[in-house]
Amino acid sequence: MDVTEAVLRRMSVRAFGPDPVDGAVVREILAAAHRAPSGGNLQPWRVYALAGEDLARFKAIVAATPMQAPEYPVYPENLWEPFRTRRFQCGEDLYGSIGLAREDKPARLAQLARNTGFFGAPVGLFFCLDRQLGAASSQ
């Protein structure tokens, strides 16, 4: 597969099968990802992979923890065009693809809450950065 094909085949997954993933496969993926570029070529991340009972315990902790305000905004305030429309359309397409109407706020919130369960993924990868590096180091 070449880079163009990889980019064109990229997709977001919102449901995973229950089959476990071999730890060797996870290590192989992370070894390849370790070569990803970063600002200043620091590769400042530390990666933690959880699966099985460890992931189940983590999911239970997250589900029992009250939601907090984000530490930083995901989007700028007063998002401008064309980005505002793109964000809106992405949400419409996502919820439409799983049959959730815009007006069905409880169902949309329930779907959003599935984020905390990693959409059933058998492995959770956590990429952590030292806060002292600042936002530019995460790019």
Question: Which labels suit this protein?
Answer:
two-stranded antiparallel sheet; NADH Oxidase; 139 residues; mainly alpha; globular; 9% strand
Report on the structure:
This protein has 139 residues and is mainly alpha-helical. The protein has a single domain (3-138), classed as NADH Oxidase (3-Layer(aba) Sandwich). 40% of the residues lie in helices and 9% in strands. The protein has helices at 3-9, 23-33, 52-64, 83-97, 105-113; strands at 46-51, 123-128. The radius of gyration is 18 Å and the shape is globular.
SSE layout and pairings?
Layout: H1 3-9, H2 23-33, E1 46-51, H3 52-64, H4 83-97, H5 105-113, E2 123-128
Antiparallel strand pairs: 1-2
